[in-house]
Amino acid sequence: MKIKYLAKFIIISGIVSVAAITVAAQGDEQTRSITSDDFAKNRPAATKSNGKTPVQHRRTYNFVRVDKNVVRPKSAPVKTTVPPKTAIKVTDIGLTMWRLRPTMDSEKGFLLLPVLLDDKKTKQMWLAERVDTDAVFKAGDRVRFAVESSGKGYLYIIDRETLSNGAFGQPILIFPAKESDDNTVRPGMLFDFPDRNDEWPYLKIQPKKANYTGELMTIIVSSKPLTGITTDGKGHIRNGAWLADLESEANVEIFSRKDMADKIYSKPESEGSCGIKTRELRPETTTSDTPCGIQTRELTRDEPLPQSIYRVKGHIGQPVVAFVKLNVKSK
User: Fold this and answer.
1) Which of 23, 61, 126, 175 could staple 157 via S-S, CB 3.0–4.6 A?
2) Which residues have CB under 8 Å from 111's CB, separation 6+?
3) Contact predicate 56/40, CB 8 Å
4) Listed ranges 50-59, 194-203, 239-248, 313-322; the one with the highest mean pLDDT
5) Are 164 and 214 in contact (CB under 8 A)?
6) Burial class (CB in 10 A: 0-12, 13-18, 19+), 293
7) What DSSP line would sit under 148-196, residue for residue?
């Protein structure tokens, strides 16, 4: 009888131990972090000033979640291509979101951006403050974001509405707007949207549907120009199977920082911006080495780092895909 109870006790203890190990493992997954070193090292090194080398600050990014195939098509995606069995590589995509707001009396010396008030007449200068990856916006908020790649490549941004019933709007290719646009990116170059040089450099949240919950942006970085995209006159993507095929391969770990550094949009970030408008205004003599002209430069290792890092796994030579959600609070 004692042996029987002892055996039962051992079995129960074993189950409890396995459960404890599982919980601990899950805890490790949720609390692990990365530093900015791997991302920052790809940027240009800062030049010495007054004989001193600028200090490179290390930032800690905490694990947020894993995103895999966020977009759920109505039918299973059709595999239009079979990627070769190449080694897996990791690409880091930096993302920063800002929400614009009026300045307080104590806030002096910050870079400010022009804002048109709701009366459509009054212009003010507001500052842009960083927000978390999963921040929730509301109607009337003015928002902007910037994307930075840890490697050289070609950037594509696709946007679609998200609805409360889990459905998505029709995907729209918002960058590049046309095939002739220069969409090259490299470390330290910020693709900001809207462009810093736009008349109103922000998006104003204006839901047009009662069940609107935000926007989902598909960020694609490819080592070579993509040839499979077809769009109509309004930028809507026609070949949905091609996009579903690409998005189904997404495998992203999201990390975000909680420190208070770099919270306000800065002059270096403005100088590093290379959005649509800036590319359109570039001199005719501009080459792919200077896609935004001589007025724009790459951020260096000691300058503001992104708010979040999307660590994307993909096969060498194949495009990498990350999903960025802009959450909007319903009424």
Assistant:
1) 175
2) 127, 264, 265, 266, 267, 270
3) yes
4) 194-203
5) no
6) middle
7) EESS-EEEEEEEEEEETTS-B---EEEESSSTTS--EE-TT-BEEES-T
Cα–Cα dist 276/215, whole Å? 19
Give CA–CA dist 221/114, Å, rounded. 30
- Candidates 305, 313, 309, 302; CA nearest to 324 is 309
At residue 325, φ and ψ (nearest 5 deg) are: -100, 130
Question: Which amino acid is located at 70 in the chain?
Answer: V
Q: Which two tokens stand for residue 148?
A: 């930075």
Q: Which tokens belong to 306?
A: 């992104």
142: closest CA among 158, 156, 127, 153?
127
Could you please report the per-residue DSSP string of 64-132? EEEES-----SSPPP-------PPEEEEEEEEEEEEEEPPPTT--S---EEEE-TTSS-EEEEEEEEE-
Q: Is the per-residue pLDDT at 267 higher than 70?
A: yes
Residue with tokens 């910020």: 190
Token couple for 238 = 């026609």
Give the integer Cα–Cα distance in Å for 192 and 155.
Answer: 12
Report cis status (omega within 30 of 0) of the bond before 176.
yes
User: Which pTM was predicted?
Assistant: 0.85
> Which helix (H) or strand (E) element contains residue 248?
none
Strand 172-175 and strand 252-256: pairing? Answer: unpaired
